[in-house]
Specification:
It is built from 18 helices and 25 strands. The protein is globular, with a radius of gyration of 23 Å. This is glutathione synthase.
């Protein structure tokens, strides 16, 4: 029997030759798939899989169909002020950060008794993360409505695997699960840029260009200080620049003294002029609003008020405070516990609401009775405990859940939720993960699939009815944290089989 290239290399414990790995890492850096190092002067390639995962075409097509329906639902919920404020009040009392967001929301929208008109137009650039569970099928892990990044990296991963297939076809065939599988197209970078440019054009056409300023559409990205994921952001900026959109970057700290109101209630940025789109890659955690030099008696007040100020102007915004609230873990739980008929309240047909329900994993609120049930009857490995935090490090698994529940105060319960734990299919063939130029053979890789969607003012703004593209992050099955930055995740892409 003929020995494959991979088997020969595994015997020699070399996997791929150094030159191949170096060339792929250089391809990554050359195409902007990089993370800035802590010294701020150099970058390293983003960790990646040498060969893509395989997924059944019908599953992928189902997710492409249902995800825009989810986005449409979230878009409607995010603009439903009475529902947001009534359904999330208990969670906001339990979680100080979301308590601050709820106060900001009331400043922007008022209350049910005294509503206000929010001038901004909502631009929802959302990533819905799924795992394809072995028994339950593909289910939602979480909604990401703010700082939902890495769409450009998702497209680049697809392109990198195509580069592998063309340059080293024998290696690719040995590592891919099915040589007959077809790569799933991914134009996420172009589609997100198209959606943003469309929103910018609408704002500029509707509200005009202030007197004495240039006609050029302007995009403002709100970023964190000392951000390391700048290259993913810059890829999106370059795609916008190619569409004639001017791009600028500012922190909340900078914006607190640089924003003003222009004619026709336009948002004006100092030395730039009228802004058409504001895109938040910051604002999902308290530290983004923390400015110790201000010596505030009320922590984070000034910078959070900058966000409120933005939404009081004629500008497209992602993410609005309403969108951030609507994509919280608690809102995910609330929608999951509703019937399909109840979901039709926001304009979904019952058929579409049923499709939405098909991808929502079971979630349960935390209270004394639920804790007693969990400790007494639950199969602990079948659940994960989540708080409202974004990114990695906010989940508790298995036997650790009981200890965490015992440590919680009753007033903190509403900030947490139990969710059905998902166990995705492990890749059938080993593949090679590359991190910091070093190879590791992984024989139990599992994948998390994020589908991007873009809606502006309640309507889809992509060439695919709201669907924009995907991001795949894979990790060893034994690892709980799959983030590229905070865990053991690696960039990946999808091939399809029938």
């Amino acid at each position: 029997m003929k020995t494959s290239i991979l088997e020969k290399q595994c015997v020699e414990e070399q996997y791929l030759n150094t030159q191949t790995v170096d060339e792929v890492c250089e391809w990554q850096i050359m195409h902007g798939v990089a993370i800035k190092n802590s010294d701020g002067t150099t970058a390293r390639h983003c960790p990646f899989s040498i060969a893509p995962m395989t997924m059944k075409r019908r599953v992928f097509e189902h997710l492409k169909t249902v995800t825009p329906m989810l986005t449409n639902l979230i878009s409607k919920v995010s603009e439903d002020m009475p529902f947001l404020q009534s359904s999330l009040s208990s969670m906001a009392n339990a979680d100080p950060f979301f308590g601050r967001l709820m106060k900001m929301h009331a400043q922007i929208h008022g209350t049910e008794a005294a509503p206000k008109t929010a001038l901004r137009k909502p631009l929802l650039l959302m990533r819905t993360d799924f795992m394809d569970d072995r028994q339950q099928g593909a289910k939602v892990i979480e909604f990401n409505g703010i700082a939902a990044g890495m769409g450009p990296f998702g497209q680049r991963a697809n392109e990198m695997h195509d580069y592998m297939r063309r340059q080293w076809p024998e290696i690719y065939r040995d590592l891919v699960e099915s040589p007959a599988a077809i790569p799933a197209d991914n134009a996420c970078l172009e589609q997100l840029a198209h959606g943003i440019a469309t929103a910018a054009q609408d704002i500029r056409a509707t509200y005009g260009t202030p007197t004495g300023q240039q006609e050029q559409r302007t995009f403002l990205m709100v970023v964190q200080k000392h951000e390391d994921n700048v290259y993913d952001q810059h890829l999106l900026e370059v795609a916008l620049q190619q569409r004639g959109v001017r791009t600028v970057r500012r922190t909340f700290d900078q914006l607190s003294s640089q924003l003003s109101t222009g004619e026709n209630q336009r948002l004006i940025l100092k030395d730039i002029g009228a802004v058409d789109v504001v895109y938040l890659r910051a604002g999902y955690q308290y530290s983004d609003y923390f400015a110790p030099e201000l010596r505030e008696a009320n922590c984070c007040h000034t910078l959070s008020q900058t966000r409120v100020f933005i939404e009081q102007h004629n500008v497209a915004v992602n993410a609005t405070v309403g969108q951030q609230l609507a994509t919280s873990k608690t809102m995910q739980m609330i929608l999951t516990m509703m019937t399909a008929q109840e979901l039709t309240h926001w304009g979904l047909s019952e058929e579409n609401a049923t499709l939405v329900k098909s991808v929502l994993a079971d979630m349960l609120p935390i209270h004394a009775e639920a804790i007693a049930w969990f400790n007494r009857d639950a199969e602990k490995r079948e659940w994960v405990l989540k708080n409202q935090g974004e990114g990695g490090g906010h989940c508790v698994f298995g036997d650790d859940i009981s200890a965490k529940l015992a440590a919680l105060k009753s007033e903190d319960y509403d900030a947490w939720a139990l969710m059905q734990r998902l166990y995705p299919h492990e890749r059938e063939r080993p593949t090679i993960a590359v991190r910091n130029g070093e190879q590791t053979l992984v024989d139990d890789l599992v994948s998390e699939i994020g589908l991007f969607t873009a809606y502006f003012d309640g309507k889809p703004v992509t060439d695919f009815e709201g669907y924009a593209g995907y991001l795949v992050r894979s990790k060893p099955a034994k690892e709980n944290e799959g983030g590229i930055h905070s865990g053991k995740g690696i960039l990946d892409s999808i091939t399809l089989i029938d």
